[in-house]
Amino acid sequence: MAGIEEVAKLAGVSTATVSRALSGKAHVSAKAQDKVERAAAELGYVASSSAYGMATGKTRTIGVVVPFVDRWFFSAVLESAETKMRQHGYDLTLYNISGGEDQRKRIFDEFLLRKRVDAVFTCAIKFGDAELKNLNRTKKPILGIGGTVSGARTISIDDVAAAALATDHLLALGHKKIAMIGGHPASEMEFQQPNMRRRGYDQALERAGIEPNEAWYLPADFTIKGGYHAAKQLLGDPRGVPTAIFCASDEMGFGTIMAAKDLGLRVPEDVSVIGIDNHDMSEFFGLSTISQNVRELTEHAVDRLIKIIEGFKDGDPINIEENEEWPIELIVRATTARPASSRR
Fold first, then answer.
1. Model confidence, pTM
2. Is the model's pLDDT at 27 over the cut of 80?
3. Rounded to an integer, what distance in angstroms lies between the CA atom of residue 288 and that of residue 276?
4. Do the domains spanning 61-157+294-312 and 159-291+330-343 agree at the CATH topology level?
5. What is the pLDDT of residues 178-191, one digit of tens each?
6. Which CATH number is 159-291+330-343's, of 3.40.50.720, 1.10.150.130, 3.40.50.2300, 3.40.50.1100?
7. CA–CA dist 292, 161 (Å, integer)
């Protein structure tokens, strides 16, 4: 395998220039950078990660912390994050905290404190004060998505506004009997999305002069199965059936569509359904939804984090409390329409 000396000889530059060019350091001309990259590619030279780390104090690895890996939202985040990080020349180390408090403690008190990552990227994880303090002490910048974090940079949607927009869409179609399938208070970990999305639903109804019906709010677990079970209860209750259902996730929307079909109801003729996410299967189901463009959000977040890593200077604050609100979009498809009574 070719070494740095062979690359330097072929490129016609010094080994120091090769080292600077391949480590991404400044003070290398564009012409020299191009010559080095061409020579390295021709010779199949790959810089040693250990040598790079010794020379720069960097690992070119980012630690990614998620609560689950087996749900669509988190798998979409991981796929997009890995792709974008590799485009920037960074590796990803995954930390999954679904194993409980002991596993989380080891990750935050041990693994992330080792000099193995240059930064921490989180999805729907809220740091405790001690966790953030430890990471700050090791000079690791943090960027999180999926909710605001005290003392760290974050990018998140306004969950209250997203739920209100979904409910307002149903209200604008003429629906007054609107139910909601939300989340269990503990099902989305630490950011209270279930509470915030219910608040948006309640606020939209109240603005329209409609008193929220407690019997028409059922919690589930953000899965298809959970949505199916909750919708069966709502749509099978002979004491009063809603004409529309807002689901706090698209997967629960899919379950709701299936439940309606099993009960002999038509969507949207008998009941309208809308979700949140713009899941990859939403178009297949024809589901109206509030899109948060999760892949674009993730790519934007990774770009921003790497810019922080590479632009960090001594004396800069490691982490600051700063949230960027990510835009949402209403996508109207085939599962929402005017209630049957208003079409007669």
1. 0.82
2. no
3. 9
4. yes
5. 999 998 765 545 55
6. 3.40.50.2300
7. 12
